[in-house]
Design a protein that fits this description.
CATH architecture: 3-layer Sandwich
CATH superfamily: Rieske [2Fe-2S] iron-sulphur domain
Number of helices: 0
CATH class: Mainly Beta
Helix content: under 10%
Distance between the termini: 15 Å
Shape: globular
Strand content: 35-45%
Order of helices and strands: EEEEEEEEEEE
């Protein structure tokens, strides 16, 4: 059942800076699934932590996803190739995968907890 997509509690919404992003893992063993939860105000969105360009994780260091842009605003950045993604939509707006999007994951907030529907293995994607 390692490929089952289940709703999992990944953190509390207050554990994420506002705005901010946080990595989570789902499953155990050699191939746990890695995802990203982004907080935008009182809302959250979640994505698979996989750049559509080469399949690398976006971050090289835990929870380092967002960069500040000149004039304000923040974008998710792939540390490997510099692709930039809009946190609200997952759309790549700059970089080698421009026009493509991160894989969205269903998520919601329930009594302050962030719940994400995710697989138990990264091989499920």
């Amino acid at each position: 059942m390692s490929g089952a997509w289940l709703e999992r509690r990944v953190c509390r919404v207050d554990d994420i800076e506002n705005p901010g992003a946080r990595e989570f893992q789902s499953g155990e063993g050699d191939w746990p699934f890695s995802g990203i939860v982004c907080r935008i105000g009182e809302s959250v969105v979640a994505y698979a932590n996989v750049c559509p360009h080469k399949g690398h994780p976006l971050n090289l260091i835990d929870d380092h996803f967002l960069i500040s842009m000149p004039g304000g605003g923040r974008l998710l950045r792939c540390a490997s190739h510099g692709a930039l993604f809009v946190p609200e939509t997952g759309l790549c707006v700059v970089g080698p995968c421009s026009g493509r999007s991160l894989t969205p994951l269903a998520c919601r907030i329930d009594d302050g907890a962030v719940l994400v529907r995710a697989p138990a293995s990264r091989t499920a994607l």
